[in-house]
Each structure stands twice: as structure tokens, then as C-alpha cells.
């Protein structure tokens, strides 16, 4: 698989993402935000975490206008797979490629810890190697992860299997972490080719570092 | 000319910062506060060619995220 990893000023998870995909045997390329084209034969575009443009104005609000994002929008419109992690999720919602928006955490804190997540939908090219209702354990690290979507869109998303992950306790009981609507941690678009989540699967690929639950998530894109 | 843009979370969208400030004011003994909403004010220094329509477009495109935020603005000479 050829993976293009975007880099904006302030991105800081591009090397973790590169390491994770290369460990799984894929070819990666880091793409600068000013590039006006994506490389040919890209199978997956990853918008990694960090603090693009210092999170000024709103997290992700400036990055969405970077030249490379116009290309990512075209790529997604043609059915290309896009994954946004943390700040990448914020950028994709700001760009309108994913529904909803991410607000400041309810407790106003930057939350950085390992977190249990419940897998809600597996009928997609991201979580197909996970089991429905499976509880996974991977890191979160964000201040603006409070997912908001209005009731009308939420209902449609549920019917269409667009809710991917929810924050939960070790037993799989939903748990409010940051104020997200229905404890949502990750979603996809209607056509199920654009994915976004606040947790960091790329930081959970070595048991030595606490968890390798991220492996089966990222491997989902192989099929 | 100055364009003064105010951006705030929509009514019905929980404002965590406003809630925290509301709570803090209550703790300090201030009474009679029904609600606190925290927004941001963006002041643009613009020349006379800039119209209200242009400011509206700037708000819709960049300055506000209309999924969660409302805005208003005034143009001052």
C-alpha cells in the first residue's frame, strides 16, 4: 500500500505515522502542505495529529485551506481513502469532508492518557479487522476532542453505520471523556471512504509501549 | 474602516468555557447570572472597497465554523 502522510507547519505525528505504516510493510511518503498534487498511485492519505498552524482561530481551520487539501478533497470525492487522526480529524471536519465539529473538551483540559474504546461499526475499510463491540485500548491526547453533531445528522449517521468508535470503560460501557455527543471518538463519511478519530492508533503498535491494538486498525486499510 | 466580527457558539451548543466562567463567578459570590457565553471578537482593518457581503463571505468561509458557531459583525468608519 502507498500511504501519503500530510505535513503542515505544526504537525507532529507524521513520523509516528510513517513508522507505524512502514512497520506494517507499506511504502510511505510525507507530503508538504504547499504541494499542489498528491503522488500517483496513492492508496491512502493520512492527515496526522499535531497542532497545524498553532491551532489558531480553531483547530484545523487554517490547514483546511492549504493547497494539498484541495487535492485531498478531489481524491476523496473520487472514492480515495482518507484517514484523519486527532488534529487530522479536526482538519477533515473543518474541510467538510466529515460531518460535525470538534469543540473544546468539557473539562477544558488537555487529556493525554490511554483510553478504552468500543468498536461500533466494522462494516468499513478501516475497522474491518476489529470485532463489533470489541474494547480496544489506545492513547488519546487532545484539548479539542468534544465531538458535536446535530440530532438530525446523528440519526442519519447511526442508520448508515458512520459511528466508528466510542469512549468506554474497560467493560465496554460508554463513558463521557471530553463531552462528545454520545461519547463518539471516531466517525466516517456517508460513502465510508473518509475516516476520522481523536485517538492515536499509530501510537499503539508495540506491546512494549503499552498496546498494539492500533495494528489491526491500520491493517484494515490493506483489504 | 474597521470590521468588528463577533463569533460565538450557537445557542443549544454547550459552551464549556462559558460554563466554567459561570461557575467561577458563582463561587466568587456574584449573584443573578443566568448564563455566560464566551466568544471571540475579530477586528479587521479594511479599506473602503470591502463590503458587508465580503465580510459575510469571510465569516462563512473561515472566521466562523457554522456547524457550531454563529457570528455577527459591523462595519465602522
Automatic annotation (TrEMBL), chain A:
Biochemical pathway: Purine metabolism; IMP biosynthesis via de novo pathway; 5-amino-1-(5-phospho-D-ribosyl)imidazole from N(2)-formyl-N(1)-(5-phospho-D-ribosyl)glycinamide: step 1/2
Nucleotide-binding keyword on record: yes
Entry's Gene Ontology molecular function annotations: ATP binding; glutaminase activity; phosphoribosylformylglycinamidine synthase activity
Under which EC number(s) is this enzyme classified? 6.3.5.3, 3.5.1.2
Which Pfam family, an example, fits this chain?
A: GATase_5
So what does this one do? Part of the phosphoribosylformylglycinamidine synthase complex involved in the purines biosynthetic pathway. Catalyzes the ATP-dependent conversion of formylglycinamide ribonucleotide (FGAR) and glutamine to yield formylglycinamidine ribonucleotide (FGAM) and glutamate. The FGAM synthase complex is composed of three subunits. PurQ produces an ammonia molecule by converting glutamine to glutamate. PurL transfers the ammonia molecule to FGAR to form FGAM in an ATP-dependent manner.
Q: How does it assemble?
A: Part of the FGAM synthase complex composed of 1 PurL, 1 PurQ and 2 PurS subunits.
Protein localization:
Cytoplasm
Superkingdom, natural source: Bacteria
Name assigned to this protein: Phosphoribosylformylglycinamidine synthase subunit PurQ
TrEMBL record, chain B:
Q: What pathway does the UniProt record associate with this protein?
A: Purine metabolism; IMP biosynthesis via de novo pathway; 5-amino-1-(5-phospho-D-ribosyl)imidazole from N(2)-formyl-N(1)-(5-phospho-D-ribosyl)glycinamide: step 1/2
Q: Where in the cell is it found?
A: Cytoplasm
What UniProt keywords apply to this chain's record, in alphabetical order?
ATP-binding, Cytoplasm, Ligase, Nucleotide-binding, Purine biosynthesis
Where does it sit, as one GO cellular component term?
Answer: cytoplasm
GO MF terms here are:
ATP binding; phosphoribosylformylglycinamidine synthase activity
Does this entry carry the keyword Nucleotide-binding?
yes
EC number from the UniProt entry: 6.3.5.3
Major place of residence: cytoplasm
- What's the catalysed reaction? N(2)-formyl-N(1)-(5-phospho-beta-D-ribosyl)glycinamide + L-glutamine + ATP + H2O = 2-formamido-N(1)-(5-O-phospho-beta-D-ribosyl)acetamidine + L-glutamate + ADP + phosphate + H(+)
A Pfam family reported for this protein in Swiss-Prot or TrEMBL: PurS
* Alphabetical list of InterPro entries matching this protein: PurS, PurS-like_sf
So what does this one do? Part of the phosphoribosylformylglycinamidine synthase complex involved in the purines biosynthetic pathway. Catalyzes the ATP-dependent conversion of formylglycinamide ribonucleotide (FGAR) and glutamine to yield formylglycinamidine ribonucleotide (FGAM) and glutamate. The FGAM synthase complex is composed of three subunits. PurQ produces an ammonia molecule by converting glutamine to glutamate. PurL transfers the ammonia molecule to FGAR to form FGAM in an ATP-dependent manner.
HAMAP family attached to this UniProt entry: PurS
Q: How does it assemble?
A: Part of the FGAM synthase complex composed of 1 PurL, 1 PurQ and 2 PurS subunits.
Q: What is this protein called?
A: Phosphoribosylformylglycinamidine synthase subunit PurS
